[in-house]
Amino acid sequence: MAKKSKKQQAGGTPATVALTAAGVDHTVHSYEHDPAHPSYGEEAAEAMGVSPDRVFKTLVADVDGALTVAVVPVSGTLDLKALAAAVGGKRAAMADPALAERTTGYVRGGISPLGQRKKLPTVLDESAAAHPTICVSAGRRGLEVELAPAELATLTKAVLAPIGRG
Known about the structure:
The protein is an alpha+beta fold. The protein has 6 helices and 10 strands. Strand 2 (56-63) and strand 3 form a beta hairpin.
């Protein structure tokens, strides 16, 4: 069994541990998750009092047989065709939720683009660049991390592309 760092033992997630290890300026936001809320992302935006355009959801898709991470604003939806094009693929479909959870090491509604068990190709919607900071899941429901979009792109080796639909 892998030994957990003191940070993880103190309640850190792989995402927050990765940010701290990389020396990235970030703020962690915690809120009480309501399992009855119909949208994890909209719940996060409401709980933090942040515009849904600045809160981004992490989705896992299958592009031509390869899992790919898409990070888009919670105020919109993912354009699967645009995602496939952004990574040089032909077809994309949402990944099986159980496979996404196993591969990333996170549960649905808490999948972070950071600190994933297996590094996956990542595409960040280009609208992120319009904001000084954005919020993404910090690795569990009720926990978000706020950081500069450029830092997120660097850490995840993300491609910026127009993959979100308003």
